[in-house]
Amino acid sequence: MTSFFSDYQPQKTVQPTCYEEVQETIKKANRDRTPLVPVSSGTNLQDTHLPSVKDAIAVDLSRMNKITYLDARNRDAVIEPGVTFAQLEAPCKAEGLRTLTAIEVPKEASVLGTYLEMMPLYGWPKYHPWEMLTMKGVRADGEVFATGQMAMSQDRPDKYSWGVSLAQVARLYCQAQGTLGIITNAAVTLKTIAPENQVFFFSCNNISRATKVLKAFIATEEPHEIFAVNKTYCSELLGQGDTKNLPPWTVVIVTRGFEKAEIAYKKKDLTALAKQLKGELATRLGSVKNAGAKILSEISNPTGFSLHSEDGSGWAPVVTIATDSQIQKAAGLFPKDSGSLIMPLQAGGCFYYQPDLRYSLGEEKKVRKTYLTICEKLLKAGVTFPRPSALNAKQVVAHNPSYFKLLRSIKKGVDPNNIMNPKKLGL
Question: What's the pLDDT score for residue 411?
């Protein structure tokens, strides 16, 4: 279980099958002062399922894999942490629904784990990060808790469809399954499958142009998915062997609808905007065959780590949130062969920015130093690390001491013995 981001392995693994067993595991860990690291699946971007300390016990939640409720009318489902995207997809598809998939996270990943870890979802620009409604689980001190409607006694079966207005406290439990407790059930949102889908491409000659174009298109509120990729990332996304015929940057726009006329109307609107931007909205990308179909396939069924790496090579993403000016300054810090993805958040006020480092296996020690050097420069430039990795956690704390002092005071109140995800920063 070691990786680029962690040198630690758990001393053993336990596999609870219900919340009572989770509760007993947590109570025992408190008595023994043993650190716990919950694992819903080992498929997230920076290996945050791995321990950050020695002698931790991995709590493997994969056997808690029940879909306890599916509400097709209100488009939500109540699931346990072991439910994977592949498992949830089948009953959803039968009802004309789909899950909100995450960048780089394959179908064998845990839905709940992915959402709790705040993996970047392709649907964020359209739907924003409200993929979970309510949740329940076991706190770090061994007490059972619930948020929103799950904390209430309700007779109506669709009680999880009311939205998030009563579940704001649930946001504290995002970004790390297990830091404040282990979530054993959660209501997640689903979306309707649209029969008509169209992918458009807008070529850009540099990163500054790409962020400007992203801002313009996201302001129309028409794209269901929108992101920009440099030619390295784009070639891998499309299964191309080289980058010669690809532009330096490509903005990818996906529109969805229920009638061809609806898509045609959106195309006219987006085409007019493309002309204002002195560019072209294309349905093809150079000589690449079926580029649009490949994009739709990746969004519905993300490839994961293997998209960027082959035998003998490694891939280390740098997960950040940054403004357009910060992104322009940061781009020069990465080697020319680095891949990079940018997705607009908050109507383009900031962006999910994921550049990466490529390396040959055996070079991890050297590349880790490069990673830390780049992270330090990004922090000095004001770039945010929403989910710090085990490698750069100390750096992030050093640049935000008062913020993490507050977060640790919250954690101490719920986890006085500091047994849950010790040394991890996500809350």
Answer: 87
The C-alpha angle 70, 158, 88, rounded to 5 degrees, equals 15
User: What would the pLDDT profile of 308-345 be if each residue is shown by its tens digit?
Assistant: 987 788 999 999 999 999 999 999 999 999 999 999 99
CB 252 within 8 Å of CB 299? no
Q: Looking at 72-128, which runs of residues are DSSP E strands?
A: 76-79, 97-98
Q: Are 313 and 236 in contact (CB under 8 A)?
A: no
Sign of the Cα torsion 276, 280, 283, 285 reads: negative
Give the H/E segment covering residue 209.
helix 207-218
User: In degrees rounded to 5, what are phi and psi of residue 260?
Assistant: -60, -35
Confidence at 167, pLDDT banded by 50, 70, 90:
very low
The three-state secondary structure class of 46 is coil
What are the φ/ψ torsions at residue 217 (nearest 5 degrees)?
A: -75, -35
Query: Strand, helix or coil at 304?
Result: coil
Residue whose token pair is 């981001």: 5
Cβ proximity of 176 and 407 under 8 Å: no
Contact 81, 64 (CB under 8 A): yes
**pLDDT reading at 26 higher than 50:** yes
CA–CA separation, 375 and 332 (whole Å): 13
How confident is the model over 56-64, as a mean pLDDT? 94
Residues pairing with 302 in the sheet: none
Q: Cβ(63)–Cβ(81) under 8 Å?
A: no
Q: Which residues pair with 102 in a beta bridge?
A: 121
Structure-model confidence comparison of residues 158 and 355, the more confident one = 355
Of 6 and 376, the structure prediction assigns the larger pLDDT to 376
Query: What's the pTM value of the predicted model, to 2 decimals?
Result: 0.92
For residues 234 and 326, is the Cβ–Cβ distance under 8 A? no
**pLDDT of amino acid 245:** 87
CA–CA dist 105, 121 (Å, integer): 9
Joined tokens for residue 112? 């709940």
Q: State how far the Cα of 227 lies from the Cα of 33, in Å rounded to an integer.
A: 44
CA–CA gap between residue 64 and residue 16 (Å, rounded): 7
